Structures are given as C-alpha cells and as structure tokens.
Amino acid sequence: MELLDRRTMLRLSAGGAVAPVLAGRRRAAGVVPAAFSVPMTVPAELRPVRSTRDADHYRLVAAPAWAEILPGVRTPVLAYNGTFPGPTIRARAGRRAVVEYVNRLGEPTTVHLHGGEVWPEDDGGPMDLVAPGTARRYRYPDRQRAATLWYHDHAHHLESEHVYRGLAGTYVLHDRHEAALGLPSGRYDVPIVLKDARFGADGGLVYLPGDFGGRTTILVNGRPQPYFRVAARKYRLRLLNAANMRFFNARLSTGDAFQQIATDRGLLPAPLTTTELPLSPGERADIVVDFSRYEPGTRIVLRNGFSTHPATDAILRFDVCGRVRDGSRVPERLAALPALRPATVTREFRLSMDERTGMGFINGRAFDAARIDFTVARGAAETWRIVNDNQVIEHNFHVHLAGFRVLERNGGPPLPTERGLKDTVMLPPGGSVRIRVSFDPRYRGDYVYHCHVIDHSSMGMMGRFRVAGHR
C-alpha cells in the first residue's frame, strides 16, 4: 500500500523557511532525549461538572500552562484544563454534551469538534471567535454513531500555532451497539495522539509557519517517542494524527499484522487485517493489536513508514509485560455502513499552493470569510472530486458537518484502510479522490471545507459553503 515515498517535503515550508529550519536543528541539539527513554502517559479524562436527564455538562478552559514534555524541562504550552494534549471527553450517543469553553488566553480562539454533526453556531468555525476573557457554550447533539472524534482550535490565522502549542484533545463517542461487541475497553481502550515538534535549546516549542522539516521530534500523548508497557492481551488503540503537517504510516517493527476496526466516523463493516495504516493530519483510525502472541519481555516498535528524517522513524515502543485474562474479542461483523445514496450534484475542488509565497488556494481562490462558494440542498448527497494540483506538496481535505465515503483514488479503488465513513482524506502530490458526501437533513447553515494540513488552511486553503432548503 505504498501511497507516498520518503521525500523530504521541505518544500512544504514555502517561502524560504528551509534556512531557519536547519538553524533550528543546530540550536536544538542535545535537548531531545533518546527514543524510548520516557513512559507514555494516557490523557486524563474530563468528567462532567454536572449531568441532567439527557445531557452531560463539561468545562474546558484554555490558558497558558507549563508541561513536562522533555524530561526535567518545563515547556510553556497552550493547554485545555492545564494538560498537553487536552483531556479526553468520553460522550454517549443519545445524550447531549454541553461544553462551557473559557478563553483565558491573550488571543481569540474557537473550538471545533472535528467530525461532529452540529449546528453552525456550535461548529467552532474559523471566524466565530471567543474573545479573550470571555466564555461560551458549545452544544453537541451526539446523535451520530460511535467514533473517535477530536476537538481543536480553529481561529483563522491562529489555528496553526494554537494547535501546534497544544490546543487539541480527543472526543470519544460511545454507543450501545459498539459496547455490545465485546471490543477491548476500559484501560485497554487507549487514545494515541500523534504530533511532531521542534524544540529550542531552552526546551521551548519553536513555531514557524510551514516548518515541516524542522519538526523532527515525534510526540505521543505529549511525550517524545515514549515506551508503553502493555499486558499480553488485546488493546484498542485510537490513533489520531493531530500533527499540523506530518503524515504517518503506522507499522509494527515485527512486520506483524493488526486489525483496523474503525475510520474517522466509526466502525468498519468488518475488521481489516493490515500491516500498515496511513494517516494524514486530522485523520483517525482505531486498531486492535493482540499482544498475547508475544512473550513477556518482547519489545515492539510502532514505526512511521512515511518518515522523512532518521529522528522521525520511531513513534512508540510497546513493552510486553505479563499475561492477564482477556475477555475481549474482535467479531467478524462490526457495523453496517449507511446505504450509499445517489448523488444529485457533482463538484470539483482543486487544491494548490504557491510555493514562492506560501499562499494556499482552492479552485484558484484563497479563503474569504465573506464569500459563500456554493450551496448544498439540506439532506442531499453529492459527489465531489478533489485534486491536488501540486507536484511536490502533500495536501488533504476535510469537510465540516458531513461525513463521506471514498469512491475512488486516482481512478482506481480507495485504499483498504479508507473504506469506512470518513471526514478527512489524504491527497499525495498530483493525486485525486472522488467522494460521496451525505448531509443530514436536520442541519442547515454555513460551514467550511479546507485542507487539514493545518498550516495550509491558515495560509488560505479553505472555503465556505451553505446548507439550505431541501433536496
């Protein structure tokens, strides 16, 4: 499943960022610890501050904080509730989640529930800002199927740095159907938040727009290339690519297969046995790894098949410990996908970046908050063709509100790992995909679509659309 090669992708840092990147590597020398020298931590879970008959209420505070990312070093970050990454919210389908968001930063922010089906006023759009020192409530209906979603800052021109410095967290939506399958759960259901970073000599995070080549430290749940002690049993790992620009292709160092059970928007119809899992920024996938096949004391490295630098090859090491009782299973059937509804409209979106200026475009136009690019009939299904017009730079594509199915890639079938419900899809240089986008008739209003290589959306690779009327 070779989708991308090991190109350096330094040209992602458009407009002369290469020299600062190389200088940054020299400044950071000796700061980053050796791989597998720190334990992986599991993000804290955010508990409701109160619950009513049909809703759980949460409080999320964005503020400057200190985090020990590198051992013994206090790094200034931007954090939700003081943690890097933000706490995991575990919600239940059929129960509303009401999140009171408090902005204690010195800049405006907004919170987008990536993958959530919500009304426009709760979508956290790029111009729907929460001013410093103020608060607002986001209301999430949670009427969709179980899935690994995530929340992150989306304030236009600020989102890239805000997410890079820590304003992101996992939002796990559970439902009764999934609970009845017997999949690994509890402490064996683990969020794995993947990022990359560049550190200065003082241990601080160095941010430069488009600085793909300089972010050579891989972080897992906020720790640099950690080790994770696992029991010799099955684990459900919820992989989230929360990096600004880096693509991952997860592989076990043993070459052994694992089972993918879900894509962005929920369970696959059946488990997919695979040896690799590509994820572009914003994409999620749930996998089950059975560590009972290894003897205690075995060490297995999760590697990145898309590594562009020796330091970015290793992601995480699993250290297999003792055997424990395992009552979980991965059934042959997981969840039926919704019927693929016929499309009434076909559209095309061409993504491009000016490699001299760093400006990003969709169909030749940069983002304009006052412009509506097209209107979708409420409840419609449409076929969209998305093309990456750049020949060196990777892009991807994310649409708010609606989920989609990948119909074809480069004129052929989609990758096996992307044959479920999606909301984000990768686009290698010169590549194209066709997707069937389905809109829930309960929602109408204005939303955005954009490249989720988030430095690119910040550079203008984004647009607005309106859902209105009826099919």
From TrEMBL:
Organism for this UniProt entry: Actinomadura verrucosospora
Keyword 4Fe-4S: no
Keywords per UniProt: Metal-binding, Oxidoreductase
Enzymatic reactions: 4 Cu(+) + O2 + 4 H(+) = 4 Cu(2+) + 2 H2O
Family: Belongs to the multicopper oxidase family.
Lineage of the organism: Bacteria, Bacillati, Actinomycetota, Actinomycetes, Streptosporangiales
Family annotation (SUPFAM superfamilies): Cupredoxins
PANTHER family: BILIRUBIN OXIDASE (PTHR48267:SF1), CUPREDOXIN SUPERFAMILY PROTEIN (PTHR48267)
Tagged with keyword Amino-acid biosynthesis: no
The protein's name in its UniProt record: Multicopper oxidase CueO
InterPro entries hit by this protein: Cu-oxidase-like_N, Cu-oxidase_C, Cu-oxidase_fam, Cu_oxidase_Cu_BS, Cupredoxin, TAT_signal
EC number: 1.16.3.4
Coiled coil: none
Signal peptide residues on this chain, from the entry's feature table: none
Record CDD domains: CuRO_3_CueO_FtsP
